[in-house]
């Protein structure tokens, strides 16, 4: 059930976000700079807003947090629609509502991934997060297609479409099992090196650096490649990435059980580095770029579930704090990469951005090898998820 909820609730965001800027420009309410500000606020709050909800999600039933996030999404959708009908030229009002919409998805993500971490024991968490990755990528493929249909066929009601998905998510969330509120911190066992702050810093550092590499594909590549490949081909490559993950994630998960966590981190980041480097060669045609996409997808299939599992370990089972930190670091890494990468592309130095991404991934491989004993100890210690 939680994976169905993950799929539908992501669509609440995904059905609007891909063409939000296009919709806003079509309203002719304000200039492109203001449109960028509104969309930027929505993206930033979606990516890094999870930290604002950590204590709430940690303390109360995750079902209530999921439902609250959908109520926020409905309010934001209605407000966006009313602003468009007005229409009002207040950038502040639009940015506030855009931020609310982003926060709603951020809360939904935090509550859902925390719920998954809590419902599965240590030895099953990697598999649980792998299935979460599948549901997210199915949504990531379906939502943009749906968004493209809505922007053409239902332009006047564009902002209201997420309501149907939010209501469906709410109905399903009510049927989830309850979880007990956490009223006191779980004490970390004394003398266990695997729970020191250094482990948290290492895991979050790995996540940040890997995201710098992954962000090259997700945020920089479309602008860099559009001149050589065209918008249609770039869109198909993103769809291909989602299909690869949906089809191959279970196979990759089974194969990964043969290797320890350090080897998986190294292999994943070597693939990520290779993918980032190959993205430079858009002039080589679709085949070269498709190999790059495969490398990036394989790396993400391994690293995503693994990093989430290690984060729960490093935070001694405090799943909410772990997932809050993970999603925040993801957001910072992605946002920073996109800002710097697009600036480099604009300056005619797009290749440098991909080289930086490859270097970041290789740095993770080297650091993971250097911290091998520490990481293996962290991965072996089974801790219950405490909220």
TrEMBL record:
Pfam families: MFS_1
InterPro entries to which the protein is assigned, alphabetical: MFS, MFS_trans_sf, MFS_Transporters
Topology with respect to the bilayer: Multi-pass membrane protein
A GO CC annotation given for this chain: plasma membrane
A GO molecular-function descriptor: transmembrane transporter activity
Location of this chain's protein in the cell: Cell membrane
Entry keyword annotation includes Transmembrane helix: yes
Alphabetized UniProt keyword annotations: Cell membrane, Membrane, Transmembrane, Transmembrane helix, Transport
TM stretches of this protein: 7-27, 33-57, 64-85, 91-117, 129-152, 158-176, 201-221, 233-252, 264-282, 288-310, 322-345, 351-371
Primary site of residence: membrane
Name of protein: Nitrate/nitrite transporter NarK
Organism from which the protein derives: Actinophytocola oryzae
């Amino acid at each position: 059930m939680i994976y169905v909820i993950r799929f539908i609730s992501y669509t609440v965001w995904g059905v609007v976000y891909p063409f939000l800027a296009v919709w806003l420009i079509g309203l002719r309410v304000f200039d492109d700079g203001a449109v960028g500000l509104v969309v930027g606020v929505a993206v930033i709050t979606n990516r890094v807003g999870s930290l604002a909800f950590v204590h709430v999600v940690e303390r109360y039933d995750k079902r209530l947090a999921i439902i609250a996030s959908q109520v926020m999404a409905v309010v934001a959708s209605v407000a966006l629609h009313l602003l468009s009908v007005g229409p009002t030229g207040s950038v502040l009002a639009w940015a506030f509502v855009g931020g609310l919409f982003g926060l709603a998805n951020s809360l939904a993500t935090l509550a859902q991934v925390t719920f998954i971490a809590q419902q599965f024991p240590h030895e099953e968490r990697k598999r649980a997060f792998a299935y979460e990755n599948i549901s997210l990528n199915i949504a990531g493929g379906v939502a943009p297609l749906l968004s493209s249909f809505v922007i053409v066929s239902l332009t006047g009601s564009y902002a209201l479409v997420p309501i149907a998905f939010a209501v469906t998510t709410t109905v399903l969330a009510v049927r989830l099992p309850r979880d007990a509120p956490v009223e006191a911190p779980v004490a970390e066992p004394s003398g266990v090196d695997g729970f020191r702050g250094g482990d948290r810093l290492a895991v979050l550092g790995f996540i940040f650096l890997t995201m710098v590499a992954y962000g090259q594909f997700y945020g920089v590549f479309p602008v860099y490649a559009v001149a050589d490949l065209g918008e249609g081909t770039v869109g198909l490559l993103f769809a291909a990435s989602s299909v690869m993950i949906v089809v191959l994630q279970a196979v990759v998960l089974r194969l990964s059980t043969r290797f320890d966590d350090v080897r998986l981190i190294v292999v994943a980041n070597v693939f990520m580095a290779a993918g980032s480097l190959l993205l430079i060669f858009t002039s080589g045609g679709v085949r070269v770029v498709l190999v790059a996409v495969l490398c990036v997808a394989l790396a993400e299939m391994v690293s995503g579930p693994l990093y989430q599992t290690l984060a729960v370990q490093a935070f001694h089972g405090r799943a909410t704090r772990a997932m809050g930190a993970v999603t925040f670091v993801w957001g910072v890494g992605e946002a920073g990469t996109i800002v710097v990468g697009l600036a480099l592309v604009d300056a005619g130095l797009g290749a440098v951005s991909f080289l930086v991404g490859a270097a970041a991934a290789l740095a993770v491989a080297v650091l993971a090898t250097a911290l091998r004993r520490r990481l293996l100890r962290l991965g072996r210690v089974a801790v219950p998820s405490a909220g």
